[in-house]
Amino acid sequence: MAGERLPGPATPGADVPVHVGLRTSDMDEATDFCRKLYYGPLRIEPVGDPGRLRFTADVATLGPITVGEVRYGTDIRVSIGALETAYHVLVPLNGFIRSQHRGSAVFADASRAVVYRPTGDIEIDWPGTCRLLSVKVDRAALEREVDAALDQRVVSPLPLGATFDLVDGPGRTWAALARLLLHELRGPDALASRPRMAARWRDMVVSGLALTVEHPYGEEPAGLQGPHRPRTVKRALDAMNTEPARGWTTHDLAALAGVGARVLQESFRQHVGLPPLTYLRRLRLDGVHDELSRSEPGRVSVSEVAYRWGFTHLGRFAGAYRDRFGESPSQTLRGRR
Hints:
- It holds the Pfam family AraC_binding_2.
- The chain has about 325 residues and is α+β, with helices and mostly antiparallel strands.
- The protein has helices spanning about 25-35, 140-150, 170-185, 195-210, 230-240, 250-255, 260-270, 275-295, 300-310, 315-325, 330-335; strands spanning about 5, 20-25, 40-45, 55-60, 65-70, 75-80, 85-95, 95-100, 105-110, 110-115, 120-125, 130-140, 165.
- It folds into two domains: about 5-210, Jelly Rolls (Sandwich), CATH 2.60.120; about 230-335, Arc Repressor Mutant, subunit A, CATH 1.10.10.60.
- β8 (about 95-100) and β9 (about 105-110) form a beta hairpin.
């Protein structure tokens, strides 16, 4: 079956939607389409019968977001280099996918979406029966939205949770909103095809994701993990995220929060799931990993990046880093070659 492209405007604008699509049984054509619409460093390998490939994609771009429904028709494996410039969410509409990202294996189906951060290679096992909603959001757009919503400086890239619920709460609403936007952009006379309305809808998708996905800043996303974090916990979290390299102690953070050390410890276990200094160590490790992932070998050293993020004992740092990411810091840095 030859490729059949769906009609769409030729040139995208900041708030002018562009709708394109493809139906093909040619793997090279499908790969080229996905590279142009989503990411350049992408490889697609058939795991099932290549003769059963029936790639269908219906995709719209709107300023900083790209949203589409995609299916391959045969089992494939997708390998993607570090996204770098975007965050990405995959929502299986039927079937399931398995993926590996940043040392963690994630299973996603119609009940749970998977979230990818800008750093770390991605590998996805995608059965031919799975059709999914694929949403890419430019890195700067999502980070600005979280920053504006919380009125505080955030670490880039955001330490987002790897999945979120699609059955109840904001995740279900956000996925429905993104899918409805794609449906609206298919029609030239739809309300969302008008630039002013498209811009508002675009902002709703970005801000809705910021409120849906899990992150450690301020209060929890509404409805995601129960009651909001108390002000004492928020003050300690804000301090650590603002100055992650500072030599914080539990007593320092407790004094800042206006409670005793034992109260702060218990509040963190209840509302964060980690003791304060364990959270701080993870924050620092993620910061080092993200910086090493973006750095060129020879221009920086592991030790200077580690010191910059507050690690003073390199032996303990290296062990904790390997436990968290499954590789040494130098391997992460060499991976940029």
